[in-house]
Amino acid sequence: MTTGPGHERWICYQLVAPMERVLGTAEIERRRDFLQTHADARTRIEVRSAAAGYPSIESERDAVAVSPHIVAGLREAAAQGASAGIVGCFSDPALDAVRESVRMPVVGPGQSSVMLALQLGERFSILSPLDSAVKRHTPRLRAMGVAERLASIRGVGVSVVDLARRANDAMDRIVTVAQRCVEEDGADVLVMGCMSMAFMGIVRPLADRLGLPVVSPVLAALKTAEILLDMGLSHARTAWPEPPEKPYLA
Predict the structure, then answer these.
(1) First vs last Cα of the chain: how many Å apart?
(2) Which of 32, 57, 73, 108 would disulfide-bridge 92, Cβ 3.0–4.6 Å?
(3) Is CATH 3.20.20.30 the right assignment for the domain spanning 9-108+220-231?
(4) Residue 237 neighbours by CB under 8 Å, 6+ apart
(5) Mean pLDDT score across all residues of the chain
(6) Which pTM does this prediction carry?
(7) Dihedrals φ, ψ of 143, to 5°?
(8) C-alpha–C-alpha distance, residues 169 and 183, integer Å
């Protein structure tokens, strides 16, 4: 496995959109730099764009359409010697399929950040770009067995792409909705339910302003992947068995 000088391992962060066509290659580099800044000194980060897909994931249609490219991207990274993979979306699209397909640990930001939030308070709220996320996230949280600890899922009324472009009023909208999660819903921990929101770098200012923990799915996924590598752990094959070989009929 080639990692470069000073690095013992590399983590592939798989984007879920053809980012160079949506926001440009500079945004891919910015996200890589953000991850690399927060990574362990032994870790090299590589960010890979999806071969095709919608500009963002805001529905099940969007998630299903890009899933084959997520699987293909992380399978290729594993074959090239990646130590671990991250699915770059809070919805964790194709996470189960990728875990069936590779032996390296693969982490979902949604799963990672929610599990971290449970250790920081009794009830958590998810800040999502749009209100439509309530219908999409609730069944996943029930399946994870954490629905009883969920205070609310609230949309901030800004699309994923506009968050990535740092819409002028995005921070004010996020603060307003976050305060409602605390004051009206009883949350004592907040989870950013969008990677573009988390890549804005506002987690600490928001936490300071509200006086409670705010979990970044970007950093939760990165640090979970690093912990798994430190401990020599990966997902159980009994839980995600390797699919039988068969022809794919195009």
Answers:
(1) 33
(2) 108
(3) no
(4) none
(5) 92
(6) 0.92
(7) -65, -30
(8) 21
